[in-house]
Request: fold
Amino acid sequence: MTPEERLAELGIQLPPPFAPPANFVPAVQSGRLVFLSGHGPTGPGGALLIRGRLGDDLALEQGYEAARLTALALLGSLKGTIGELDRVSRIVKLLGLVRCTPDFGQQPAVIDGASDLLVELFGERGRHARSAIGMQDLPFGMPVEIEMVVEVQG
Reply:
């Protein structure tokens, strides 16, 4: 089953590629690697779907959902860059930033929202290296920002 078929089976539609709010592009391909800029939990039209701070006004489950939505936004930009998600050879690396209070220590559990979705869609090709870091603030009040590096077939 292709990643697109799996998304359809789950009833999920990818948002269109992210429109950056500043002077950068959503993705750059260099050889077989695609580097995706930091994305947040946005939906169609680029609207931010979740705002807040983990450990303050957001619970772990809401952070997990924000990371899952962020992974979908990343995949929308990836699809816009490479055409078909079945071209993905490997999800190589995620850098997950979590907007949280100083005493919140569950950043890895938040970013699991993205990691779990990628493994669900790509199987072993979706397993990746990852960092999950707590931040005092992120743009526009978003709770999660994630960068991704993907290897694609030639």
Q: What stands out?
A: The longest strand covers residues 88-99. The domain at 3-152 is CATH 3.30.1330.40 (60s Ribosomal Protein L30; Chain: A;). The mean pLDDT is 96.
